[in-house]
Amino acid sequence: MKTTFPLFVFFLAFNLLSAQTTIADADLSLLPPASEGDHYTGVPSGIIYIGLASGAYQPFDTNIYKTNGELSDNRLVTGNNFDLHFSNLNTFRTNATSSSLYATTDTQINTTAGYTQLWGSSGIILYDATTFESSIWPKAGIKDTSGDFGTAGQVLSSTVTGTNWISNNSSITTPVEGTGLILAINTYTANSDLTTTLTPDHYTIILKGAKEHTLVLPSAAGNIGLVYNIKNLGDKDATINLYIDYQGQDIYRVQKQKMLVLQSDGTNWQQIN
Prior knowledge:
- Helix content is 6%, strand content 27%.
- By secondary structure, it is mainly beta.
- Among the domains are: 4-60, no CATH class; 154-271, Jelly Rolls.
- The strands form 4 sheets. It has a 5-stranded mixed β-sheet, with no helix packed on it. Strands 1-2-3-4 form a 4-stranded mixed β-sheet. The chain has a 4-stranded mixed β-sheet with strand order 8-10-12-13, with no helix packed on it.
């Protein structure tokens, strides 16, 4: 047994050395086909080649990026908690049918000079809450939840469920000392069905137009004493959150050509006119 193992090592080394043939690699096309699996040493380059089944000489260099390559199957690179850096590149490009970038914490795309540009032939979709740390500069129209760009003079109203372009002719005036209290008056014209969410900044609301208005009142709880004056000059009854009328009935509308005054008692909205 002691004699057999040294002989095995000797024959293995001999076969490896004998299979590594010296070739003149100035022009590989002038050489006869390589034998599959054989190793060749290029002269004068010193590059190691391996023979392929096709008869080609495949360079086997320590720098794997000297020649282009082609995948023959799916490949996976596992980082084992190490970093992967690409440094001093002029341009970094990917060209794929679909690209995905995932991270367990933050994903950052930074540009030290110029702009960071994102393109999408059908647009760009941002999921979840999005925070802008600086100014936003839209160079085209802004759509609301329904896909409407709105019209000149309208403002974009935002709620928990979405956004909506609304007509807002607010006349909030700065009070002048000694002249009394000046409160906000807002006029909304419904050229199409229009939903308006009221806030504590509203006071008098005038409704106009041929289409139906929907008014969303804030919660009565936490707004005790808050008053709304609602005047419906529109062609249709307006829909509103539940309020209790002067007869103690639950009501969900503001009648056309009528006026309604509501005040929160901290639990419900009460009609007080």
